[in-house]
């Protein structure tokens, strides 16, 4: 069985398998351990528990190995059977239960983005900016105001969305011989992305000019347009006045929705037969692209973790959590590279 101490002797292999260096792993472990112990104490103290604290079987893996298992899973996206049987000597059900318990705590231990848990209902989608939104979640950086307090030089945010392929929704099974399924599943069309040509899950990221992921939307079906996702992502109501917002051509409609904000997008090429972009417009588009490349690089760093890149085979409800933890790991490495503290 692999252990954290044994793997730390091979730093390059450690970073390749987990996405972090041994030094960064020890820093995360230092923050993660008390949070994990607190979460375990709360779990063992629940009112309907019949055993006293300390009774029952103990975990086979120590806290460092449990954290190591979660990082390897996120980076390599191995199956539960492979991860349990060949690496940590556990049953796949034990691996699954461990990851379900570890990942929410790990997200708290990382300097991740402000993650919206749900999308706004379509009837409540933003039409004009409204102040006062506060994400309902426990996090070191709980609101954009706190984020701006920590990074007072921040003046710009760059937004973009990314899609990840998922399985095609299935219809109901046959109930009797000769009977047809009850019909096409309701969500079959809404997950189909014409752009990707597949059923996908979409996530929107808002990134600072330095590359830090500041905000992450809840998971949306692949069919949803980027502008609609922004209007329902709970980001528009959290932006303080004075921050410029950069996006690609898909976000051009935000200029009408948020007239009080400075929304900067590339100029679209006129339709065929209606002229061409001027040299000045092409030059401005190049400047916007130079700013926007930061969010493309951030998405690229996120997708180095295979759980965010490969065909997603998990539950839709957990997709946002995986992206939130990976975003925290990406921010951790960037903060370390910039020489800033992650706490």
Descriptors for this entry?
343 residues, alpha/beta, 2 domains, eight-stranded mixed beta sheet, 8 strands, 41% helix, elongated
Report what the structure shows.
It contains 11 helices and 8 strands. With 343 residues, it is an alpha/beta fold. The protein has 2 domains: 4-109, no CATH class; 114-169 and 189-338, no CATH class. Strands 1, 2, 3, 4, 5, 6, 7 and 8 form an 8-stranded mixed β-sheet that branches. Helix 9 (254-257) links the parallel strand 7 (244-246) and strand 8 (262-264). Mean pLDDT is 85; it is low at 129-142.
Q: How big is the Rg?
A: 22 Å
Largest sheet: 8 strands, mixed
Q: Which descriptor suits the 3D outline?
A: elongated
- Helix content range: 40-55%
Question: Can you count the beta strands?
Answer: 8
Poorly predicted tracts of residues? 129-142
Overall mean pLDDT score? 85
- How many DSSP H or I helices? 11
Q: Tell me the distance between the termini.
A: 32 Å
Return the domain count. 2
Sequence of secondary-structure elements: HHHHHHEHEEEEEHEHEHH
Helix/strand-derived class? alpha/beta
Approximately how much beta-strand content do the residues carry? 5-15%
Question: Which helices and strands occur, and which strands form pairs?
Answer:
Layout: H1 4-8, H2 11-18, H3 22-44, H4 63-76, H5 80-88, H6 92-109, E1 114-115, H7 144-150, E2 156-165, E3 192-193, E4 198-207, E5 213-216, E6 220-221, H8 226-232, E7 244-246, H9 254-257, E8 262-264, H10 279-302, H11 319-338
Parallel strand pairs: 1-5, 2-7, 7-8
Antiparallel strand pairs: 2-4, 3-4, 4-5, 4-6
Helix pairs in contact: 3-4, 3-6, 4-6, 5-6, 6-11
